[in-house]
Design goal:
The protein has 2 domains: 18-114, Phosphorylase Kinase, domain 1; 133-351, Aminoglycoside phosphotransferase (APH), C-terminal lobe (Aminoglycoside 3'-phosphotransferase, Chain: A, domain 2). The protein is 39% helix and 13% strand. The protein has helices at 18-28, 76-86, 103-106, 133-151, 169-184, 193-201, 245-254, 263-266, 281-292, 300-322, 334-351, and strands at residues 37-40, 48-54, 57-63, 96-100, 110-114, 210-212, 221-224, 227-234, 241-243. A hairpin with a 2-residue loop joins strand 2 (48-54) and strand 3. It is globular, with a radius of gyration of 21 Å.
Length: 354
């Protein structure tokens, strides 16, 4: 069985008009022949990702979800243009082939990019993907290296100085996520007030300003199928901006469930960071600081921030379930998970030297 990530049949209600896609593709790539075969990638809870095949040639089409969207969400044009600017200086970004802002075509902005054929690691290693402990560590470090490399990009030279709001990033994040939590709070979930007060009180200055991914995880890294230690692509640039690199690392570590974590956190694991050979969160921090040359006295603040931000994202989803705006049963247990995240944050705060 192939380890290469594969699409599946398109979900009901998310079908694309193949004739329209075909006309658009052949306008930009007139050498294409035949009819497109369109399938969909099952992962992701935000933008929709399709594979468009013409014989041996494969492309990826990204568009926002169908239906009414929040004004500032799912900005496909911004994502594609960031990728275009970043690709020459950060070669792990897929090539953008075409961008469309004409809603007469597919009813929304979308873009076409090259398809990177490779392995994507999700909750567990796929069947047949057997690595020793030493090789697992090598793979882990290779992925973290790509975050370090991203944070070293000269964003001004790349023409990306317009994608963020400049200094004050940390303060904007704490104020923004706290406001979003209070707005989405439900009666069956803790209030996080102690956590938000601590994040406000202990707020550091921005460490530095750089391009940050904001959703850097194993399932957004594409591995070379012939050499899984080589990362050939980083995906999902929807939330990329200019910000604090340590906040970006804190976001990554919120998903980093290690082998000795307690049961409730293990149940939230979405990537294979529990495998023998994977770095622990502290080892990730130490490795990142060594590779980046950054120095800090404590990472506690950024770890709590990352967990709080993830809890807010979950709370925004759970709010919709709680109020009957969605009946998706996957979200039914989010309230319990969010309460656990509050206890986890409070435990880290109690142990912190800050």
């Amino acid at each position: 069985m192939s380890l290469i990530d594969q699409p599946v049949a398109v979900r009901d209600g998310e079908t694309l008009d193949a004739a329209v896609v075909d006309r658009f593709m052949k306008t930009h790539l007139p050498e294409l022949t035949g009819e497109p075969v369109i399938r969909q990638y099952p992962g992701g809870a935000s933008n929709l990702t399709y594979q468009v095949d013409y014989g041996e040639r494969s492309f990826v089409l990204r568009r926002p979800p169908f239906g009414t969207l929040a004004k500032s969400a799912h900005d496909m044009l911004r994502e594609a243009r960031i990728m275009e600017s970043l690709q020459p200086v950060y070669p792990y970004v897929p090539d953008i082939i075409a961008i469309c802002d004409d809603h007469e075509v597919l009813g929304a902005d979308f873009y076409i990019m090259e398809r990177l054929e490779g392995i994507i690691l999700r909750q567990d290693f796929p069947k047949g993907f057997d690595l020793s402990e030493a090789d697992t560590r090598k793979l882990c470090c290779s992925v973290i290296d790509k975050l370090v490399d991203l944070h070293q990009v000269d964003y001004k030279a790349a023409g990306l100085d317009h994608i963020g709001k400049g200094a004050g990033y940390v303060e904007r994040q704490i104020t923004g996520w706290s406001g979003r939590f209070r707005k989405a709070h439900t009666d069956d979930v803790g209030d996080f007030e102690q956590v938000m007060a601590w994040l406000q009180e202990k707020m550091p200055e921005d460490h530095s300003l750089c391009v940050i991914h904001n959703d850097f995880r194993f399932d957004n890294a594409v591995l070379n199928p012939d050499n899984p230690f080589e990362v050939i692509g980083i995906l999902d640039w929807e939330m990329a901006t200019l910000g604090d690199p340590l906040m970006d690392l804190g976001n990554t570590l919120a998903y980093w469930v290690q082998a000795d974590d307690e049961g409730p956190f293990q149940m939230m694991r979405r990537q294979p960071t529990h495998r023998p050979g994977m770095l622990t969160r502290q080892q990730v921090v130490d490795y990142y600081l060594e590779r980046s040359g950054f120095t800090i006295d404590s990472f506690d603040y950024y770890e709590v921030y990352g967990l709080f931000r993830l809890a807010v994202i979950m709370q925004q989803i759970y709010y919709r379930f709680y109020h009957g705006q969605t009946s998706d049963k996957r979200f039914a247990g989010f309230g319990h998970a969010i309460n656990y995240m509050q206890k986890r944050c409070e435990g880290l705060i109690a142990q912190s030297s800050l």
